[in-house]
Amino acid sequence: MLAPVVGQAATVMAQAWIGFAGGIIAAIVSAVVAVRQSRLNGKLQADLARLNSELGSDLARLNSELQAEVQARTALLERDLRAEEVLTRYREPLAAAAFDLQSRLYNILCLDFFGKFGGNHERCEMAENTTLFRLAQYLGWTEVLRRDIQFLSFPEADDTRRVTQLQSQIRRRLLDREYGPAMMIWSDEQRAIGEQMIVEEHGKVLCMGYARFHDDYAERFAPWCERLRPDLQSQTAHQRLRDVQHLLCELVETLDAQRVRYTEDLQRAQASAS
Q: Which of 134, 145, 133, 98 is nearest to 244 (CA)?
């Protein structure tokens, strides 16, 4: 009877140990899982914090770039509006000056102006003086426009950009040595003549008229213009003057965009001076 009792007790004890060991194992597993979950949660929280920080930095950078882009586009728009405002203010006087000069060049090139009024003609000096005046008047209005528009960088508006391009091309034709020395006017000389033409009347910047140009000629303009006087009647200057005349016609057409004042005269001049 004793053996079965002992066997039964051993079985019970074995089961108890198994239960105890299972509990310990379960507790250990639970602890391991808890530790791993804790570590995982910590890592997740750290990753989330890092992602939030990176996202915040990216959003701040994008916002800064967006503000910079808005400011740049606003500045560009304001610059273009300012350039258009300046061009509108001087459109008519610059167009008139360019037309007057191209008209005289047309007369010289196509209608033998100095053949009629040059040489020993009694009005030769007047013919030369008025030609020099028209050149100086164009350079004067060009300088006025340059002063107002020079700090606006390079305008994007089509009309303003085209006007500045044509003025630049005319300037280069006048200074280009490939045409020879006749009527060659360097950039600094062009600006100097233009500066001498600028006057201020009643708070407005203008170019002086012919009467004042005539009165001030010896003192203000002779140092620049007397060198040019003999070239006015020289055939060697004709190619330079012809190219300048063509560009002046384009400039007037650009300034007179509605073709209100100069269309017929310009078409005739362009056809005859080609």
A: 98
